[in-house]
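Hi support team,

I've been running sequence recovery on a batch of backbones for a student project. Most finish fine, but this one hangs at about 90% for roughly twenty minutes before it completes. I'm not sure whether the input is malformed or the queue is just slow. I've pasted the structure tokens below so you can try to reproduce it. Let me know if you need the job ID as well.

Thanks,
M.K.
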């Protein structure tokens, strides 16, 4: 069974957000275009407690973002999708989580168990950001035996270094993901 996996489509990762990714808002339309074609849609949600270990103030790499209970941490308001399930990640102070499958210390989010129970073998993935959470989630999905398609137009990259987005897509493809266009998924 095929499932659409929407990764961290949250206001804080879009322009104007706490950790805005250039063009991030353009991924929402891609998700909205695809969702009606899927019987099953699941979302991941970056969802940190205040003062999370990934924030600058605690020596982490990022400005505070996706703080639990704030508007920036919610699923994007323009997302017209009724997900079957939402999997929050990075919810404990001490562990960050780029991957939607497991926190950095290995604690599972529940996504894998959920998909296994439903017999899902194939994931069509998109979201934010290509070079962090999309990459980590896709690599974990491949390790867990899923066939993964990554929708290029549905992803945008942070690009701390120019080219990080393309390198991340190449890394996912190298690991076995198929990087596809929106048209390829729809047709
Ligand atoms: Zn985060």
């Amino acid at each position: 069974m095929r499932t659409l996996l929407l990764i961290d489509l949250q206001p804080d990762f879009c322009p104007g957000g706490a950790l805005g990714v250039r063009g991030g808002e353009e991924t929402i339309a891609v998700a909205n275009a695809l969702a009606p074609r899927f019987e099953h849609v699941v979302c991941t949600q970056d969802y940190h407690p205040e003062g999370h270990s990934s924030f600058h103030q605690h020596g982490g790499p990022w400005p505070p973002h996706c703080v639990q209970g704030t508007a920036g941490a919610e699923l994007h308001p323009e997302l017209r999708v009724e997900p079957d399930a939402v999997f929050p990640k990075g919810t404990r102070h001490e562990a960050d989580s780029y991957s939607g499958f497991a926190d950095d210390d290995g604690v599972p989010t529940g996504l894998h168990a959920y998909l296994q129970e439903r017999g899902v073998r194939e994931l069509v993935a998109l979201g934010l950001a290509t070079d962090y959470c999309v990459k980590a989630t896709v690599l974990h999905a491949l390790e867990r035996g899923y066939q993964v398609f990554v929708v290029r137009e549905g992803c945008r990259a942070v690009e701390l270094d120019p080219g990080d987005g393309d390198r991340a897509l190449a890394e996912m493809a190298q690991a076995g993901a198929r990087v596809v266009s929106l048209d390829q998924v729809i047709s």
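--
Follow-up from support: It reproduced on our side and the slowdown came from queue contention, not your input. The chain has one domain: 2-186. No action needed from you.
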